[in-house]
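Journal club prep, notes for RB
We'll compare a predicted complex against what the paper describes. Inputs for the flavin mononucleotide case:
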Amino acid sequence: MKLKPLTIDGLTARIPIIQGGMGKGVSMSSLASAVANAGGVGVISAAQVGFREPDFESDNDAANLRGLRKEIQKAKSMSPDGILGVNIMTATNNYAEQVRVCVEEKVNLIISGAGLPTNLPEMVKNSVTKIAPIVSSAKGARVITRLWTKKYNYLPDLVVVEGPKAGGHLGFSPEVLSKPVLPSLKDIVSGVIEILKPFEEAFGKKIPVVAAGGIYTGKEIAEFIKLGASGVQMATRFVATDECDAHRNFKEAYVNANEDEIKIVVSPLGMPGRALYNKHVKTVEESGRKIKKCFRCLKACNPATAPYCITEALVKAVEGDVEDGLVFIGSEGCKVDKIIPVQELMDELVTEAEANL
Ligand SMILES: Cc1cc2nc3c(=O)[nH]c(=O)nc-3n(C[C@H](O)[C@H](O)[C@H](O)COP(=O)(O)O)c2cc1C
């Protein structure tokens, strides 16, 4: 059976696959436009996206806002008819300004996690930009949907449900993540679909639910569609593509990663995340790394107590220093065995999903 397109309040992506936003600099205009051209939703990560701007250190906010605008414009010129999104973390210091740039540039979709994007509807008012929260539980889905509907009479245009197998920061406690059996994404997705039903009925409108975290094959995509999801968000697989914006070393680190090298690490915020267990992580565990310069990127980070600077560590990695930098990766990253073009990956995923529907 054919995969159904993903409809986001009137916007239609031919293929129901969203490429997850990956900071810093892993998903920018090259990857996002390639995915959008292949029929999916391509997503630029707004996190410290100005790291190549000359004033990145001296005027970090201005550099990032300019960098974001440039990347959106580049992606649009490379994929004029594709669906483009931007991932903005609510935990970032200049969140509202980043949203404003997306609205001004008429980005199709903002996907926002790392906390609940409580006042996002008001920020995109009277714009063409659709909005989607990222949640990790049915409770989180209910809280944000109730808040948006009550305060703004706004139903989420899409909900991304991210489970514990994702790469990067995770919305689960270290205790939950250290258990031998992780909470099941399928159970969480089913719970979210159930909890959204009364809101959909009250508004007479469907909220597409998209599953994320550890989804690797077309067969798994089919399983989530059969469960009632409208699509999937995948990130790890898109790193090992020719078009991914990260340095070749970053992609090869995925190809070479073994299962026992992918671990839960604690970010400077004290939040757990999944990353490669490399020299950087070991050094931090042993002694910490001095912070030379604070970019004030995250609201909750305190440079006086943080064991290292996350911006510095992530930028190092994306620029190719995969031993001294922080390499985020999803739990299934050990399955990556080659770097291929985005179109080839999308074709493989669609063919396999359709054979299993
Ligand atoms: C390298 C990397 C960086 C990521 N950065 C972000 C980010 O900046 N913001 C965010 O919301 N999610 C981020 N994520 C999570 C992805 O967007 C996605 O939801 C998740 O990784 C999906 O699971 P998968 O990688 O197993 O496919 C990142 C994931 C990876 C692998």
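Talking point for the session: The two ends are 5 Å apart (CA to CA).
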